[in-house]
Amino acid sequence: MSLKWRYFGYILLLHIGLGVLAFLVLEETKVLFLGVEVLILVSLGIAYALYRRFTRPLRLLGSGIDAIKDQDFAIQLRPTGSPDMDRLVQVYNEMMKNIRKERAQVQQQDHFLNQLIEASPAGIVLMDYDGQITEINPHGLQMLGLREVPLSQKPEATGHPLLQELAGWEAGQSGVIAGKGQERFHCEVAHFIHRGFHRKFILLRELSREMLAAEKRAYGKVIRMMAHEVNNSIGAINSILQSTLEAYPDHPEDELADDIRASLEVAWQRNERLNQFMRNFAEVVRLPAPDRRRIALDEVLRNVQQLMAPQAERQQTAMRLMLPEQSVYFEADERQLEQALVNMVKNALEALEQGGEVQLRLLRHPLSLVVADNGPGLPPELADNRTTPFFSTKPAGQGIGLTLVREIARQHGGHYELERVEEGWTECRMVLA
User: Which of 176, 283, 271 is nearest to 219 (CA)?
Assistant: First the structure.
């Protein structure tokens, strides 16, 4: 039985008892008996009025409690007229006002934090209390090469090599991890407190672009210094050689003059080769910014196949084109992409030397231009040098071709990868998005 009905029962029994007692004592004095009965009725009215007065604040507080349960913090209680109860009402209203203010601040901070995570240039992987992934921001998905968030999976269960390695890290641990090709990531595992419990998160920062930019500045400065010195020397030497050649006209009867002329021509040719050598290096440094236009990437691959088909036929190498059913469009510099693909195909043909197969592929996810060959590939002992600028396994190679590919990919916001894959294929990939 509730307190309300116990109160009413007590008051009712009390007044019934008083009425019976008044009847027994004042039965013969009817006027006095009627007066007592009227007083009993008045007492009942006063008891009910007091009940209403006492319970009104309780009803107000009850409605306030219901509002808190429903998380409706906009309700304010009105004063009851009772000084003691009004102080309680004032405290309640102040509490609700502070809750509304703090809740608005939390919502604003939460919204700001979500926007910050979404727009962050770093990759962020959030996990719940059990270490399962709950969210990955867009840049994190791009860096990890994922199309969607592997929800409710622990990092080690995703199958991604980078996440699998980070799964064993403790909070506070940081370091650099190598990914595919030239990818380098600075990784940090940390935690924050949410609802009184620790939650881990992973912070990824791509170092590849910064490293490549610093690397390019370094070798660009060296190449410019070399080109300046070599070109100045070659110009002067060629001028002397030209004058000397003119001083020794052809005289079949003069064997010494013929020998001198032949030697000078060899020196001239060597100078020209050295000049071309430096021009090839300078092309990497002087690569202009891409003139981006919307182009069909499958058409670019078809053009490169037609261009390189004669060389492939001469060495009896099959060349296959593997394209998606529908055209793929991308904002890029067509001439630079063709130049990069030609270098990639030439590298594959030179690796095969004779026979074999070269495949030109266009992948949608991630958007990539791939040139694959089934040649011997890069020797394992030299695998660590595959991302080194101007590195080449060919005796006369300068390593300029793939360095130029890397620069073109970087200027288009992507990167290139060179690795040995399964079934004896070597893939050179220019990842654009």
Answer: 283
- The answer to whether 199 touches 123, Cβ cutoff 8 Å, is no
3-state secondary structure of 177: strand
Q: What average pLDDT does the chain have?
A: 78
Tell me if 167 sits within 8 A of 133, measured CB to CB: no
Q: Are 248 and 260 in contact (CB under 8 A)?
A: yes
Is residue 169 within 8 Å of 189, Cβ to Cβ? yes
Place of tokens 């190498």: 317
Spatial separation of the C-alpha atoms in residues 318 and 289, rounded to whole Å = 34
Domain covering 293-431 assigned CATH 3.30.70.3270 in the classification: no
Closest C-alpha among 284, 141, 127 to residue 206: 141
The DSSP line for 205-228 is: EE-HHHHHHHHHHHHHHHHHHHHH
Which residues of the chain have a pLDDT value below 70?
1-4, 27, 54-58, 60, 80, 180-183, 208-233, 245, 247-261, 275-287, 377-401
- Is 284 in contact with 336 (CB distance < 8 Å)? no
Q: Are strands 426-431 and 415-420 parallel, antiparallel or unpaired?
A: antiparallel
Going from N- to C-terminal start, the domains of the chain cover: 3-103, 120-206, 210-285, 293-431
Q: Are both 120-206 and 293-431 of the same fold?
A: no
Q: Would you state the CATH architecture of domain 120-206?
A: 2-Layer Sandwich (3.30)
Place of tokens 């660009």: 220
| Angstrom distance (rounded) from CA 202 to CA 123 | 8
Q: Where are the beta strands (DSSP E) in 341-389?
A: 357-363, 368-373
β-pairing verdict for 123-127 and 133-136: antiparallel
Would you give the DSSP letter of residue 122?
A: S
Helix runs in 152-207, H state only: 161-166
pLDDT computed for residue 385 by the predictor: 45
Closest CA to 146 of 130, 133, 131: 133
What is the C-alpha separation between 164 and 392, in angstroms, rounded? 33
The helix/strand/coil state of 430 is strand
Point out which residues pair with 318 in neighbouring strands.
Answer: 357
DSSP 238-252: HHHHHHHHHHS---T
